[in-house]
Amino acid sequence: MAVLIMFFVQYLLAPLVCVFLMIVLVKLGKGRAMLSMKKLLLFIFVAVLLLVLPSLIGAVQYEFVWVGLYINIIIYLIYGALFNLFKKTKTFNAIGLNGVDKLIVIAIFIVMCLSIWVYYLIFDYISDLNFSAWASSLCLWFLVPLFYSFSRKLFLKIPSPFYKSWVVERDLNDDEYWDNVDTFSLMQVTVKIKRIPDDQEYSSFSVKLPKDVTLGRWFNRFIEDQNIRFPNKAIEIENEDQQFGWIFYTSRWLPAPIFTKMLDFDKDVSSNKLRNKSTLYIRRVLKETEVE
User: In whole angstroms, what is the distance from residue 273 CA to residue 269 CA?
Assistant: First the structure.
């Protein structure tokens, strides 16, 4: 039984995983891109062929530990950098992945799975060293430039939290507008805001938020309502010099800065992808400087 399991892991597992991923890739690509199967298979074949070439360095035997290891790493880093450039070419676009990150990730995973498997087989055949599995993991260095490129792309999409701020205004036609708001499409949210800049803790409010009203316009109404109901604990909207600006954000999953999602006050609930019972944090800003 142990022999069968070892045979399955060594010779069948990787191909089966790749076949399954190829089926998933084709299914996902039907509705989002026009995949060219011939070009996709050619891309996978050429990519795997290039990625397994460094396995031939295993023929140097014990010198691989001192020299071959570092040569492999350098080669794979170069491969990764070249692939980042290749992604921008018409040849890559002709495959039909159309820049869809999910499809590209699956295609790369197929390439990596096959490359590591073939690298293992070649290295195990030509080298007397008994760490073929560890040597094949060197293929993963190919992903380092790709990870950098993908991370940079996501980083550049992060908006500056103080790029623009909302200033509370009083619309002369606001009452008439709110009288016609659809009250049957309200969302329950928790609003956390400091009544004055010097407050140490946030005040919490459980409010109803219309789904078809922009956050900025709703905030005007929220400030007006709270200051009328609690005149002794009014929310300060200006200082002696000028009105405060306001930024809106929420936390996804965990209350940590890395999970903070900035909200656009010029858009409504649907556009900001807010969910029922979300927590909205609203903070004062003075120009581009935080004041609380």
Answer: 6
